[in-house]
Amino acid sequence: MNQLAELFYSIGEPYAAGLFEEPEKDYFYRHALANARYLEYLKPARYDAGERLYPSNAKFFHSDCAVTPQFAMTYQIDWGKLEKKSAEGAAALREFYSISNHGGGWTHAAPNYKRILREGLTSYRARIAAQPDGEFRDGLLALIDAMKNYIERSIEYLRSVNAPEELIDALTRVPFEPAKTYYEGLVSWNVIFHFDGGDNLGCLDSGLIHLYNGEDYTEIIGELFGNLDAVGTWSCTVGPDYNPITVQAVRAIRNRRRPMLELMTTPEMPDELWEIAIDNIRCGSCNPSFYNPKGIHDMLKDRFPHIPDEELALFCGCGCTETNLQGLTRAGGTDDNIPFLLILEHYMHSHLTEAATFEEFYEGLCAETERQIDRQLDNIVIRYEHMAKYCPNPIRTIFTDDCIENGKDFNAGGARYTWTQSSDSGLINTVDSLLAIRELIFRKKMFTAEEFLEKLTAEDPVFYKILRQCPCYGTDNDDADMLAADYAKRVYSVYRNKPPKSFIDAYILTEHQFLRYEGEGQRVGPTPDGRKKGEPTCDSIAAIRGKATEGPTAMLKSAAKLPQNLADGISVLNLTLSKAFVGDALRSLVDSYFAMGGIQVQVTCTSAEELQDALENPDKHRDLIVRVGGYSDYFVNLSPALRKTVVERNIHELA
User: Fold this and answer.
1) What is the C-alpha separation between 15 and 75, in angstroms, rounded?
2) Quick count: other Cβ atoms within 10 Å of Cβ 309?
């Protein structure tokens, strides 16, 4: 055996050992073998009495290894831990990592849970074995056999600790044989979630309904949701073909921060589901979030007319809420971020004093933004090609349709559809900044461009009051919203119109901010929307904090005028309501917004008093959940700057 492999085995690093066991083989085989060796080494997760699923509570991911699998980056390394184990091993792995490291980008996906439940992984093994001899086939066989080995060892362990026979019996069948009962389906779903790395739960209700026989497994779904929350990951989708499992899932999410339960919401959604969802939000869970399935379908059908409707129905917003088709796509999560506000800042200080008209300035800014987006997308293609060569993802190659039959890795164009997916920062800040520039310099001529920039840079308090009085997005001001819609259309269209390169099928923009809106704001000086230097940018396509002065209906009307149908990703909208508002009024708002073309709404239900007290006394409010840029989290988990942005939002009350 290779000496480096022997070294890594001796220090308890099976993933690293697998990478060097057969160094003459290609990168795909080496990573497949590394994953297999890791699973073979991994002890069965601890079972705690009362658990109906296995593994549970993130114990599968408890490991003494410094090198471990990772669902987006293929593998991750705790360099400090590895250095302590072996400086020689760390040096060798650094050399390997320097070649394979792709420099960023985050990929989310969901396995084809529904197919695995119906066919079982034994059928997947047969599909792999039917492929031509070679390293691709051999690597996947080693990996899927290691999964089987882990399940067999887990069953032995579960018997030794007197785990429930129902659970043991289920694991003797699933996930390698088709699930025959609703409970087996949940057990299988949970195992696949863990093998995949604990990323997303996909389309739960539609994937399980064929097994439903009247059982109420709300508590078990709650355990499944708790497993995702314990890992600290993301989302799950239910609806719009509502069934009893939809109801159980919406009940199970009560008082949970995660997953972000994406409830596909139609005008025909049953009253029972509305009542449960409203009660959940009123009690402070921020879940579910509401999605417009018709808007999503029409948006994707317009962009991808060749994709069958039954595949579009597998939409799930993976990660925070990036567009994926469950089990069919290799779609980037946050491949990159386009900093609209930073581009505006640089262009404004370089060109505003030269512009004779607002139109001249605006056209120049749009052209510069479009150029930067185009360059960014070219850089993403280079990164994708690097990942395809050096950083394969064998586990997702098994779990994503067409990779096996194509004989290609998940990261190398093997999936049925491969999309890059970027986000942006500061869209609404940029719009409001443009409105202020147009109003104060070119329309009212209150300031010259030089005076405007001087007072802005100095953060003159009197000047800032004037800025806050300018027309702004989010108040149903047609003039303001027309500019917002035009700017968004210009930048969204770059993604739509760019010809595909390499094995990439399309470029997608998703309007979610995650937590980046703090870091992005730190890069930008004072801007004409009323931001001061270093303050966070906008957290969604809602009005800038404190500017939704005309109420939620006006804000949603403004948002609906944006060409959300051109973004192809999900345009997140954060809405903060009082408890009195969360009822029939919320239902009317959501239905009306979706009828106007809105794509998504996520709701925080709280009061100004509660948020202020949480800001001053965080230990008293450790269970307070709030929505941020595309997902929910405990208020106390947020940085001080992000807590402040939540407190500054408009909280809409019933008149």
Assistant:
1) 9
2) 9
